[in-house]
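Customer ticket, subject: "Can you confirm the structure for Aconitate hydratase?"

Message body: Hello, I'm evaluating your service for our small team and ran a test protein. I'd like someone to confirm that this is what the system normally returns, since I don't have a reference to compare against.
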Amino acid sequence: MTKSLDSFKARKQLEVDGRTYTYFSLTEAEKNGLDGVSRLPFSLKVLLENLLRFEDGRSVTADDIKAVAEWLKERRSSREIAYRPARVLMQDFTGVPAVVDLAAMRDATTHLGGDPNVINPLVPVDLVIDHSVMVDYFGTPESFEKNVEMEYERNGERYQFLRWGQEAFENFRVVPPGTGICHQVNLEYLAQTVWTREEDGETYAFPDTLVGTDSHTTMVNGLSVLGWGVGGIEAEAAMLGQPISMLIPEVIGFGLTGRLPEGTTATDLVLTVTQMLRKKGVVGKFVEFFGEGLSNLSLEDQATIGNMAPEYGATCGFFPIDKDTLKYLKATGRDPHRVALVEAYAKAQGMFRFDDTPDPHFTDTLTLDLSTVVPSLAGPKRPQDRVPLTEAASTFEAALHDLRGGKKSSQEPPESRAEARYMDEGAEGVMDVPAYPVEGMEYHLRDGDVVIAAITSCTNTSNPSVLIAAGLLARKAREKGLDVKPWVKTSLAPGSQVVTDYLEKSGLQEDLNALGFDLVGYGCTTCIGNSGPLPEAISATIAENDLVACSVLSGNRNFEGRVNPDVRANYLASPPLVVAYALAGSLRLNITEEPLGEDKQGNAVYLKDIWPSSQEVAEIVRQVISEEMFRTRYGDVFRGDKRWQGIKVEGGMTYAWPPASTYVQNPPFFDGMDKTPKPVEDVEKARILGLFLDSITTDHISPAGAIKRDSPAGDYLVSHQVRPIEFNSYGSRRGNHEVMMRGTFANIRIKNQMLDGIEGGMTRHYPSGEELPIYTAAMRYEEEGVPLVIFAGKEYGTGSSRDWAAKGTRLLGVRAVIAESFERIHRSNLIGMGVLPLVFKDDTSWQSLGIKGDEEVSIAGLTDIRPRSEVTAKITFADGRTEEVPLMVRIDTEDELDYYRHGGILHYVLRNLVSDKEAA
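Agent reply: Thanks for trying us out. I re-ran your input and got the following:
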């Protein structure tokens, strides 16, 4: 940092409360050759400062810096830059495999004759354990303690490994289980908006920036911290000092006017924003919010919008620093001097938004009048599919045929379980749909019934307004005598312990408990697939009668097969609507018009009767939230409880891999690795492992939820004496490549078009024509020496920044993925694992080519490819005819090309670290 060439004479001093900071001034740089940069979007100002600070003439040149200023001419650029974030954030699902890779790299370094200590984070890394708690117990005061106990029983090996990493690596901190969701811990504690670093006797001040191994790292954009999700492999490279190679992005300005109307929430707003931006098309672009409407949103509202950037497809959803940023930093107990530094630095840099600040120049813009936002849900399969609350029931009916997989109706029940037509409590008339008795219970189930209602996930649990609203709705419902339907599994998983503090202080936790929304844990839970099992009788009724059951959750992801294997329709909603649907018990009930139930006097109770006003919510927020709550809860955040402290740490510089572990194993990525890479070989006579349609998500490719007994991963675990009840989840076993490669493409809802109407991870092996699990077929192809390719449609790899979606693809022997388009993070991850992403040209698709899955595919010239160059795939059809298809190489930068040629980004970094050490 101190070695910046400073071609634009930007280096200056800033004094704040008697302390002196060195910084790189955008104002000075503008005077010294970077004309007009004061009108850049705020997010690009952060990138510009980064380049000024790291200018070294090699990875960052003066021409790179000029390119940011020249961006203003066309408001887009094809220039590749090297960006270095200040820190890295991880959660445990993605963090464990990242630490596994670092441990494996230490072993590989030793094998190559190097010093394993060179494998050490060079920037601060925080790992928050938040994705492992599952909702096994719910609806009782003991739920939290029981779930935590189960969490430690299931994850002892993983947690022991993380404790080792905490001791073995420098610059690496672990936030123990039971603290909160990584994004909320980041927002409330870790993030500083302006970062500082001591070096050579000077203190440098610069924008707080980060990358995270969770796609919802973007939540912190609401605090004006530029951050986004990357795969674990890319995060590991950043930790080890490698810059992130990226094109100077287009920046889409999202203008906000007006204010939210009474009866709406920040959740309704973010679902509206998500729908608008998905329609606009912002994949790979920055989104930055501007306009007078910003002054009518709380910082928590902004964080809610920032959180769902992956759902609207953007790299980030950025909000500039303003007076509310300072207010939030102070309210969450940050050091008063840090707050003063943020204000002084932002104003000195032209990074502070005043009410009269001119709008920056954007690549393109769109606008939303906040007053037009209406109560909404999103579902039943995608977060961008917003549904006005008034139309939720009718749209569910319209989607029912598709949700059932094209079948016309539920299966007819056997005579012993005769079909019933029943009066649903609170409904106005008989529901004219099949209803099926639940064994041992006094109620029936039917299509559309809500069996999971979960206040969960990082999107909403950091926002006091929606959590207080949920508590108030519960209080009013309780006063009226309403109760949750008996078939609904309810849960409350706050994003931090501070939420519990203010819910308890307000008395609202008692009201939530009365409706079954007891605390179940501090973590992602239902949104990541850790919803836990449904009661056996309910699960059996759903399965036996092919029912389309529903979940309503306050999360950000509702992809097929994610929330719970028994639940096909999943709807995102605000926390108060989660409570409302738990009372209603069905998506088929129009809760805007039909009563939720009856009060103690037998009068109909409608949603409007128990919906809290904005004033009621605001008054309680003001009364119950204090700085002291944050200071107390985060005062010793890395210590953990007695369970965490009692974990025994074994191993030294390298990890002693336990040979019998089914959670943590030394991965084979570096087996046989030499100091220099071998030339890339062409793909010759590859077979097709899968044909997929549009919007295949990383959940489809690398599931995070339950492991089925009758699956390759289930068979592996049983063969290692693991009982099905102890399977845990795919996410928790990401440190074991044997489980994960068997789980790749094993989602229960994925549809391989090589097979007619079959769901699940199956394919057809050629030339035998046998129908096999994808893992089994891939291993047979490996024995036969046959390479593999995958064909897909648009938006391949949508969703979480899940590196195992790429790692598993590589371990199955896939050399290339050919799609119509890729989602940003997954494309990068494929390259990071040495898998070639290719896209069709000229509106071609595998369907238009008539590909069925029995073809052979050859791709030549891979040794000489360049970023975004063209290659030709030769398709040999089963009847012997051939067709040559032009494809674009979706390697976008020279750095990505280096990673691909080395067989992956970690191989590239490892070779460089070893060679640099030898040169020294």
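A couple of notes from the result: Residues 11-69 form one domain. Residues 255 and 367 are 4 Å apart (CA to CA). Feel free to reply with more questions.
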